[in-house]
Amino acid sequence: MNRRWLHLLTVFLVGCATGEDSGTSFGLTAPTGAPGLTSATSLGGTTDAASTTAAASTTDAATTASTSSTTTTAGTAHPNPDGAPDGATCTADDQCQSGNCYDITLPADGLPPGVCSPCDEDADCVAAGTGISCTIDGEQLIARCTDGGVGSFCQSQAACQPGLVCAVLVPGAEQLLPMACSECDDDADCGVGERCVPSVDVISYTGHKYCAGPGSVADDGLCALTDGDVLCASGHCTILDLGLLSVGVCGQCSSDADCPGQTCAAAKFSGGFVGSACV
To answer: Residue 142 pLDDT > 60, yes or no?
Structure first.
């Protein structure tokens, strides 16, 4: 995928976000007339634990004994022993030994379209008794069952630990980024002087939302467009214009006046959000 397409993809990733939603400061704002978030959309279909358990029980002991099925790390029989092992690139469930091809819906450089994994939805983890959330391991790029901690992907609130919220990372981009267990969903969930902002790593396909206090966001981190300067360690939250919307990004400067003997290069997107810099 060339750089221009990745840039356009990122524009779409955040292009439908709303920036004037009450009590919300995602560091994103959409132009007038852009569609807003009407409901939280989960990644893929919704399958409850009961139906998944029932499906898993359709293979009895006699049938298992008469086939060459092996066993997954979750302790269940491989429905497709001739398929690819966990960690392999895939585009369909029947290509995997586990029968689970976890869709990676963000087609960026370095990310496969899908990966064979022990799970591809939260219900798989609940049914196997190995966790409550099916989420991507950002280092190994494989979906694993987790206990629903911060950053775990979620299809519903049930996939998050108590005290966390299953939040949309970027409103309007639910089909590209899944929801994630987060510290907050909007500013109302944070303390005095804090703002609820997203932290998104496009390359590792990970992210969550958190409460950012004054001076806590490093350069290249997302910041709120309204009074966002106070969140940045540098004191500079500048606007990155992506065409369909604007994104607040912490950087080194707001204008040339902040760069004695140099100029202030505007924030940009290059494999991720890059804040302004004195050059």
So the answer is: yes
pLDDT at 147: 96
Here the tokens at position 1 are 């995928």
Q: What's the mean pLDDT in 50-76?
A: 37
SS (H, E, C) the chain: CCHHHHHHHHHHHHHCCCCCCCCCCCCEECCCCCCCCCCCCCCCCCCCHHHHHHHHCCCCHHHHHCCCCCECCCCCECCCCCCECCCCECCCHHHECCCCEEECCCCCCCCCCEEECCCCCHHHHHHHCCCCEEEEECCCCEEEEECCCCCCEECCHHHCCCCCEEECCCCCCCCCCCEEEECCCCHHHCCCCCEEEEEEECCCCEEEEEEECCCCECCCCECCCCCHHHHECCCCEEEEECCCCEEEEECCCCCHHHCCCCCEECCEECCCEECCEEC
Can you give the pTM of this predicted structure?
Answer: 0.68
Q: What angle do CA 114, 172, 242 make, to 5 degrees?
A: 95
Q: If you compute the radius of gyration of the chain from its CA atoms, what whole number of angstroms results?
A: 21
